[in-house]
Amino acid sequence: MPIQGPSDTTTIIAIAGASASGKSLLASSIYQQLAPKLGSQQLAVIAEDAYYRDQSHLPMEQRVLTDYDQPSAFEHDLLVEHLAVLKSGGSVEVPQYDFRRHTRRSKALSIVSPRVVMVEGILLLSVPALRDCFDVRIFVDTPLDLCLLRRIRRDTEERGRSLHSVIEQYERTVRPAYHQHIAPARQHADLVVTEGGQNTVAIDLITTKIRQLIEC
Ligand SMILES: Nc1ncnc2c1ncn2[C@@H]1O[C@H](COP(=O)(O)OP(=O)(O)O)[C@@H](O)[C@H]1O
Ligand SMILES: O=c1ccn([C@@H]2O[C@H](COP(=O)(O)O)[C@@H](O)[C@H]2O)c(=O)[nH]1
User: Which residue intervals define the domain Phosphoribulokinase/uridine kinase in the entry (predicted)?
Assistant: First the structure.
């Protein structure tokens, strides 16, 4: 049996914020800082993106038209179910998502009884049933112009997009959903982090808090 925290449950942390605000980088920076002390097998990072709905039954022309910035694009029920299992010390099979093909990969990834789970994603604090799953809620607050510039770079280099498609999608779904769902959820955060994954003071504070929570 894995060693568990003081309340015998897994600590689950949400890292929310706009697309390309630095959520993944922040999660990875916290992971790097905690792993030597805690052991990498005790830590897990889950992307909300992994829970985008499978669209393998749809032709590609239809997949590109999906609005990926609304809650309906995600299988949030499955994420809530997985977080409940992890919370009680269990293991789950997390789906994997292919951004180039806009659908799930065939293989899932096993996450086996970690003590700390960090979940990063755009809508984690916007959906009440999800919001309730977390012990610590973090919001990465990065100016939207920087997010757009970073998204252009990332999506053209890593997600197989053209500049034209990034801009079209940004105007059609990304920016409206930021104002409709993401920005209003900032009020539900315990901690707001500027400078994302490069805010070393915030990273130190968060890792200290996590270690306190699990008495490491
Ligand atoms: N503080 C930062 N300074 C410069 N680049 C950054 C910073 N934070 C993130 N990035 C870069 O911006 C892109 C988006 O960051 P990422 O962490 O993937 O965002 P998110 O997970 O919020 O979508 C990545 O290429 C990342 O390396
Ligand atoms: O098939 C897809 C699925 C999602 N997106 C976009 O991804 C971002 C969320 O991911 P981040 O890593 O937080 O940026 C969201 O804004 C979707 O628009 C996509 O383009 N295609």
Answer: 12-201
- Residues 108-127 have pLDDT tens digits of 999 999 999 999 999 999 99
Angle formed at CA 72 by CA 68 and CA 122, multiple of 5 degrees:
55
Residues with CB under 6 A from ligand 2: 19-20, 49, 52, 68-69, 99, 102, 122, 174
- CATH numbers and ranges of domains, the chain: 11-215 (3.40.50.300)
Cα–ligand 2 centroid distance for 17 (angstroms) = 12
Position in ligand 1 atom list of the atom nearest CA 28: 17
Contact in structure between 10 and 2 (CB atoms under 8 Å): no
- What does pTM read for this prediction? 0.96
- In the reported structure, the alpha carbon of residue 163 is separated from the centroid of ligand 2 by a whole-number distance in angstroms of 15
| Dihedral angle over CA of 133, 134, 138, 139, nearest 10 | 10
